Amino acid sequence: MPQRTVPVSSRLGDVRYEIRGALSRRARELETEGRQIVRLNIGNPGLFGFAVPAHLRATVESHLHRSEAYCHQQGLQGAREAIAAREIARGAHGAHADNVFIGNGVSELIDLTLRALLNSSEEVLLPSPDYPLWSAATVLNGGRARYYPCPASRGHLPDPDEIEALITPRTRALVLINPNNPTGAVYPRELLQALVQVAERHRLLLLSDEIYDGILYDGAEFHPLAALAGETPCITYSGLSKMHRACGYRVGWISLSGASAKLTEFRAALDLLSALRLCANVPTQWAIEPALTGPDTMRELVGEGGRLHAARRAVINGVARSEFLDVVAPQGALYAFPSVRTASFADFDDEDFALELLETENVLIVPGTGFNIRERNHFRLTLLPEPAEIDDVFARIDRCLSRIATRSAPSRHVA
């Protein structure tokens, strides 16, 4: 008698995470066969030679003896005070250590906040392209993702009027990712002010993912949303993984700001959910205070002559040399989001291209549709490799695209 399989949640049918999906699994298979794969799918600085700042590592090591018990469900008091102090200095209304929650990375906190917020079928406004964890967490917590477009033709910036047109009585929150993953867009102050006004008019909760807030290039300026939101309820997400190259530490945090009376019930819900998981990883929370009060270790990497600045330049130059590619130069974050000029191809498909690039050129990228866009001609790659390796990657990309274009040529001439 055949065995019955264990059923799974129907919600998983609408969840995708191509960053670590089928292509990544195929890359692992190729690596077991002895192939050297250039993995550009994940922004994981430690795998590309970036080290956690020494003063953070030293602080963690010196506090291990104080890290063997659970801490408060919201996190270590000193760490929360340091986070609140930064938010207050930036102008966030109502920021306070009591309104800070520390989690096992921002990923856990995205899930936790949406769990506290959503009832079945309530809606969250998300950028397209988005970071797909936002979509997944919305669906898994019973919500519905509604996407506002951020096309390359607008520098990957949203239009407040288009966002407002999507709002229904079931819309609960507006998500912003700034600086943006995957596009590298950095939102101007005037645009952020307009988005705050949309949220005010429709009583939406602002959810601002600012994990890349200090990774900026060529004069781009970051504006924290909480400072512009005033009394409008806003949750700011940040952490150590990108600015401080400490992905494995799994330290993220949220700070609630806005009129306290509007946040009372929501804060209590967050406290309950935080208590249910006891607390976040304790040892690495000790790194938060020195990270926020110590030296800026990112500036030299993103400034002229810095490694990330040079890597970004290598991407821009690689696209410029190609007859097949375009890109909106990233102003921030750790990624670029090039597009393929589809006029050179019969029926270009980003997933087919990414698979062929992996199989023939040993390069792993993420197809653009993995970030919830309709267009099938984008892909994301990280800026973390050395510039010389990026130069080589774009040579491989062009070889692959040339082969695809050659195969497409006969069908392009059919009347």
The CATH superfamily title of the largest domain = Type I PLP-dependent aspartate aminotransferase-like (Major domain)
Q: Outline, from the CA principal axes? A: globular
| Percentage of residues assigned to helices | 25-40%
Please write the string of helix (H) and strand (E) elements: HEHHEHEHEHEHEHEEHHHHEEEHEEEH
Within the CATH hierarchy, at the fold level, what is the topology of the largest domain?
Answer: Aspartate Aminotransferase, domain 2
CATH level-two architecture of the largest domain: 3-Layer(aba) Sandwich
Rg calc: 22 Å
The neighbouring-strand order within the major sheet is: 2-8-7-6-5-3-4
What count of helical segments does DSSP give? 14
What number is the mean pLDDT? Answer: 95
The class by helix and strand makeup works out as alpha/beta
Report the portion of residues in β strands. 5-15%
| The CATH class of the largest domain | Alpha Beta
* Count of spatially separate domains: 2
Poorly predicted segments: 411-415
Distance between the termini: 56 Å
User: What is the makeup of the main sheet?
Assistant: 7 strands, mixed
Q: Can you count the beta strands?
A: 14
Walk me through the structure.
There is one protein chain. By secondary structure, this protein is α/β, with parallel strands linked by helices. It has two domains: 153 residues, Aspartate Aminotransferase, domain 1 (Alpha-Beta Complex), CATH 3.90.1150.10; 239 residues, Type I PLP-dependent aspartate aminotransferase-like (Major domain) (Aspartate Aminotransferase, domain 2), CATH 3.40.640. The protein is 39% helix and 13% strand. It has 14 helices and 14 strands. Strands 2-8-7-6-5-3-4 form a seven-stranded mixed sheet, sandwiched between helices. Strands 10-14-13 form a three-stranded antiparallel sheet. Strand 3, helix 5 and strand 4 form a beta-alpha-beta unit. Helix 4 crosses helix 9. The C terminus is likely disordered.
